[in-house]
Amino acid sequence: MMNENGNNDALLDDTEEMIIEPVAGELAGDFTQAPRAPRRDLPQMMRKIPVTLTLEVGSARISLQDLMNIGPDSVVELDALAGEPLVIKVNGTAIGRAEVVVAGENYGLKVIDLDGLNLDMMTS
User: Fold this and answer.
1) Would you say residue 114 lies in a domain?
2) Which ranges carry the Flagellar motor switch protein FliN-like C-terminal domain (predicted)?
3) Is residue 101 part of a domain?
4) Does residue 14 lie within any of the structural domains?
5) 53-56 and 106-114 as β-strands: parallel, antiparallel, unpaired?
6) Can you give the pTM of this predicted structure?
7) DSSP result, the chain
8) Residue 56 sits in which domain range?
9) pLDDT by residue for the chain (124 residues), tens digit each?
10) How many domains does the chain contain in total?
């Protein structure tokens, strides 16, 4: 397309300022001209995500009627044997076994083994 003077270069000079760079997600294609975000060390970032660590003593499957009858002196038998290691869970997923210990004025856990946690994946 030519401007009134027939000069294509002048027309291109006028439109250069109107070029809009594509934003990721707007158009499919090559985004090599758009500035890239700095590369992050994902494992390092993951180390800062808080998780809930719990120690599961055992469980019991009971009826709602039995649950309604539980009171202050009730005893509910669990499926774990006395003295056997307890299950360590992270966000509800079993990752190993541990024993209960006293740590100061609180209970703590002494890890026996870690089966379900890939610690090598977290190192960089």
Assistant:
1) yes
2) 46-113
3) yes
4) no
5) unpaired
6) 0.54
7) ---TTS-HHHHHHHHGGG--PPPTTTSSS--TTSPPPPP--HHHHHTTS---EEEE-------HHHHHT--TT-----SSPTTSPEEEEETTEEEEEEEEEEETTEEEEEEEEE-S--GGGG--
8) 38-122
9) 454 555 555 444 444 444 444 444 444 454 455 555 555 566 778 888 999 999 999 999 999 999 999 999 999 999 999 999 999 999 999 999 999 999 899 999 999 999 866 655 554 4
10) 1
Two structure tokens written together for 116: 């379900």
Chain centroid to Cα 5, Å, comes to: 62
Question: Tokens for 43?
Answer: 């494992």
> 58 is written with which tokens?
């055992």
User: 15 lies in a domain?
Assistant: no
- Tell me the residue type at 52: T
